[in-house]
Amino acid sequence: MSLADSQPGGSNGADRLALLAFKGRISNDPFHVVSSWNESVPYCEWSGVICGGRLHPNRVRALHLSSSGLVGSLAPEIGNLSFLREISLFDNSFHGEIPHEVSFLSRLRYLILFNNSFEGEIPPNISQCSNLIQLRFAYNNIVGKIPEEFGTLSKLQFLSFHFNRLTDQIPHSFGNLSSLDTISGASNDLSGSIPDALGQLTRLIFLGLGGNKLFGTIPPSVYNLSLLGAFSVEINQLQGSFPPNLGLYFPNLWRLSVFENQ
């Protein structure tokens, strides 16, 4: 730890260098958001950079750069922002892979990357960010399977990955996500059956898996989800039927979408 870092109010060279590396990966900045980042202004005053904390007020806690028109890739040096709790980059044009260095951010609570052009697979070691509350990858070009390791994210409440190109099965480890209230995974290429383990997610209020290649029957355990408000599994290859007293199982249901199945 540097002397500056150890002093309340002191700046941190690692944070500054990481932010400059982030800026260096931006190829187009139409609103001059990161192009305004320069040495004449303290980095905690740079646009979209939020610092704070009682003991370390000049450590970067959040990057709020959504809807900024940014084009570029995400610098691996972002993993050096060790006090970061939120990355909010939605509604831009980031491309390339999500760097595995994100997994170094043990304090991270919100990773919000939807509506970009990220490619490649989801780094499984993001599961090391054990404080994650929201993980939002929707509307990208991500491929491969959903990491089984995500089942260790016990604090995760919101998971969205709809409109990507994800394949393979829904991990059975999702049954361990006891804090989860939202799974939004429509319009991928997911296959296999709906895991029986999803019936363990008693806080779930939104389950959206339409537009995939799921088959088999809806497991009876799903009827344990009495808080469920939206259940969407349309455009799959599911079979079977619902119990006649469905409303007793789902008293809070406001959306039921099952068209184009078997």
Descriptive account of the structure:
The protein is mainly β and 262 residues long. It has 3 helices and 19 strands. 8% of the residues lie in helices and 25% in strands. A 10-stranded mixed β-sheet has the order 2-3-5-7-9-11-13-15-17-19, with no helix packed on it. A 5-stranded parallel β-sheet has the order 10-12-14-16-18, with no helix packed on it. Strand 2 (49-51) and strand 3 form a beta hairpin. The longest helix has 12 residues, at 13-24. It is elongated.
Terminal CA distance:
61 Å
Domains, number: 2
**Name of the CATH first level of the largest domain:** Alpha Beta
CATH architecture of the largest domain: Alpha-Beta Horseshoe
How would you sum up the major sheet?
10 strands, mixed
Strand order of the largest sheet: 2-3-5-7-9-11-13-15-17-19
Order of helices and strands: HHEEEEEEEEEEEEEEEEEEHE
